[in-house]
Structure prediction request, 651 residues.
Amino acid sequence: MISESPSPKPLLMQLGVCYYPEHWPEAQWIDDARRMREIGLTRVRIGEFAWSRIEPEPGQYAWDWLDRAIETLHAAGLGTILGTPTATPPKWLVDSMPDMIAVDRDGRPRRFGSRRHYCFSHIGYRRQAARITRAMAERYGHHPAIVAWQTDNEYGCHDTVQSFSPAALAAFRAWLAEHYGDVAVLNRAWGNVFWSQEYRSFDEIDLPNLTVTEANPAHWLAFRRFASDEVVRFNHIQVDILRAMSPGRAITHNFMGFFTEFDHHDVAQSLDAVGWDSYPLGFLDSFRFSEDDKLRYARQGHPDIAAFHHDLYRGCTRSGRWWVLEQQPGPVNWARHNPAPLDGMVRLWTLEALAHGAELVSYFRWRQAPFAQEQLHAGLLRPDNAPAPAYAEAAQAARDIAAIGPMSDAVKSVALIFSYDSDWITTIQPQGAGLSALWAAFDAYSALRQMGLNVDILPPDAPLEGYKLCVVPCMPVVPDKLLAHLDDFKGPVVIGPRSGSRTADFAIPETLPPGPIFPARVVRVESLRPGLIHPGQGWAVRRWIEHLETDAAAELVADDGTVACWRSGNRRYLAAWPDQDLLAMVLRTAARDAGIKTVHLPAGLRIRRTGSHVFAFNYSTETIAIPDDIGGKLVLGQRELAAAGVAVLKL
Ligand code: GAL
Prediction:
């Protein structure tokens, strides 16, 4: 995860906006830039979809308008984050190379007419992406207005990491040959004797889609690793060019929410700052939240959605530099239901990013576009140029950031370990509906946050020094580095189900799970349909149970004798799916063992501690009093916190 930061962390978080000068008459740009500065914005992200305007004809560049746009923004005092436009290859390019198009899982080519229609493995497209990146870097690499580069836009958005094209097939075979060397090794590793799946050469191996019933899970896992590596490679091409041709500028990419299709730890290795796009209301409506939560938090977003990703993406680079490159400003256009945020939420989301250490929050977008796909997506301005509600909230957030002033970094407390291949393994072979490592991580994170704890979400090779408690919610393949770090770790460790349950090639380990991470053997697993539960005292085993042979102590036992949590030394093993009530029980005890003070936060209230301040955020629709045991001198807001309110206490 090593990434050197070219510039030191600025003292105050900056605010910015995503802007599309090509969508508006040039006469409007000066006033746009002036108003951006007027409300306290200092950064503007442009360019990421502008290929057809930058290069209207093959090889004929039209830089003049972009020169003037960048100059106009620069003259107003705005630093530009320039996007490479490779998410939107223009029509002439696609027509000149039709096989660059990605193919979906059902074998259908994806058409031109929206975005992200390219296949990551297509060599010709990679060359074109490199060419346009080089042309932009040549033009603007040393321009004083350019403070950063964003590569492409949201790798994988619209289900585009995996492509089942001829280009992907050829590249996958080469990848397999490189990884396994000998096809006999692959046959053994995948267990291809099963159902006569044995191959005589790498060239006989197809992509894992369109099989009659499920393909071999080892085949899928290899394909997902391959597809992830293709994203890494694609990104690298641009990063190498930008680094060489535009020294001193940070390179970033905007990751998405609840998205695990590629290994973000791997992609982040080449970035200076990790970016992500925060749409709390869209995510609440689109992802696996209960109907109750979807209603309760419809205008606020679930209180842990944004924070979870802040802490996940901060952990992706050693430098810890991360940005919110797109912040929801109002209703979006892409979820099934798109309500407006409660008054104050845009400001709350902004200040929450600050509390988690963001260097930048950039609103998406400046002005709502009255045309094309996203015409119902709000901006800071309405299509008629009048302020939308988020305009004043962004301005308020800018004043708040200045009023809060510099802060010290957060103190280390809980390390939560997550790996992307854990999510691939649990979704390739879930064994029970909806059981995935990502959601195990989210639920553990949420339980810890409800106790008022700070959590760092770390990759499995991260050092654990300085942490007091370590939680590994679900890690089917346990890397040796993690084992070594856990051996050195003296604080309590909570290990979740399915950990150590697979080899790197998707087989049950010979000595049975969970292996060296916990002294036990899992001899049987069951998934449980909703309602099939083993009740305990104030908690229950739901969804998943593992039966263990072990000398460890049974620590939490359900009324019928089913053991939900085992303990050996400083390690606990959760044998049941980490549901909220069970998690709360186990994590509170582990936190007590670690000597960490927890608080009982009222529903909807969340806090975040930095070294110098405590932030409180009210995600509910009612006024909430901040509990007395959260002390400090108020520098913002009140202890009686109104709905969508933020309070900041100085320690
Ligand atoms: C993001 C994307 C933006 C815009 C936005 C709308 O996923 O990066 O270009 O489409 O969503 O919410």
In short: Residues 122 and 167 are 5 Å apart (CA to CA). Residues 153-154, 157, 277, 279, 326, 332, 334, 364, 374, 377 surround beta-D-galactopyranose (CB under 6 Å). The first strand starts at residue 14 and ends at 18.
